[in-house]
Amino acid sequence: MSNIEFTQAAPEHVGVIVIGGGQAGLSVSYFLQQANIGHLVLEKHSVTHTWRTQRWDTFCLVTPNWQCALPGHAYDGPDPHGFMKKDEIIAYLDAFIAKVNAPVLEGTAVTRVTRDAGGGYVVQSTRGTYMADQVVVASGGYHTPIVPRMAERLPLGIVQVQSSEYRNADALPPGAVLVVGSGQSGAQIAEDLHLAGRKVHLAVGEAPRCARFYRGRDVVDWLADMRYYDMPVTDHPLREGVRDNTNHYVTGRDGGRDIDLRRFASEGMELFGRLEDFRDGKLRFAPNLRANLDDADDTYNRINASIDGFIEKHGIDAPAAARYEPLWHPPGERAELDLQASGITSIVWCIGFTPDFAWLDAPVFNGRGYPAHMRGVTAVPGIYFVGLPWLHTWGSGRFSGVARDAQYVVDAICAERSNVPDHVRLRVREEA
């Protein structure tokens, strides 16, 4: 990485400004360099900082290593079907950073992007103002942690952390822990605390789950063969609604395994429905624990059934099919929990993030404040997005699919710079 010294005296013109120095922004830089297009990457913190600062100590990938396919930097280690741990992920990224050698300004937050009279863009940052022909937003979609207002009413003695701040069980005070949310982070953090011997109370949400291994292979391998990861958002049954879906919970820990909340419950973890309120010293929960567990298991079995159909259709020799049967059922729906009597001393909020693009002054957002685009290309000339969940496919926000998205966007930038007529450019994009 060529980290540029800040010596700006007047606004500098740059062909393309890339906002964000994570895997998406670096992937865009890789293809811009191939196209010989001058550009600058502005990164608020340091490149790939999220992987270094917002992951717990035992964090590992939930997808197998072979899916790590950043541009020009496919995984080539000894364990393609394993799951890289945190330090291995950082080493993989460090090698990518060195390979790309992107022109980056770290510690530079973008504060405003506006269109100028000539059709270009004014990019204001904490280290000066730049002029750009085109802007690629590669800052992701997970910006502001979601913490409910009820958190303000909790006793001051309760330690509250968000999932990005959790590191390990020992970093929390002695006592029971309430984990709120059962998506990928919530389920894995609850497991981490449970395995560390902590008493865990888990507020279970509507996240689905899937098997780690089924019929002799990783489920990811089956789904890859079934071309699931190549399905564009336009072909998904939920269309753009899939972008709102919570990721399936599963883990790559210890070589990979299922996460079964029912088993945790049989081992002493306390499960509740969705956390709704804190009032009169008591946590209040929705009576939907049983439904949430059943729905997660239904998704688990439905994915496996689709694999069964694929195996049968293609005459594949594989171990026998099986159906998950619950090993534990909630004895009832507990609507409340006395906070003091429970011994809870800390809460880990794992209910996601909201995007924040308030600094981008351009008519590219829908009524919910989410970028409107087709494969990262917006209706406003010169504004592009890369690295969003399901920007085009399941892998768009991951190591597996960001390269394809970045190349597509850079191709669109090249077409725009060549003054290809809009109707031709749009047709090419739709057909690609």
Automatic annotation (TrEMBL):
Pfam families on file: Pyr_redox_3
GO function terms (MF aspect): flavin adenine dinucleotide binding; monooxygenase activity
Annotated keywords: Oxidoreductase
Oxidoreductase recorded as keyword: yes
UniProt protein name: FAD dependent oxidoreductase
The keyword Protein transport is annotated on this UniProt entry: no
Record organism: Caballeronia glebae
NCBIfam families found in the cross-reference section: MSMEG_0569_nitr (TIGR04046)
Recorded superkingdom: Bacteria
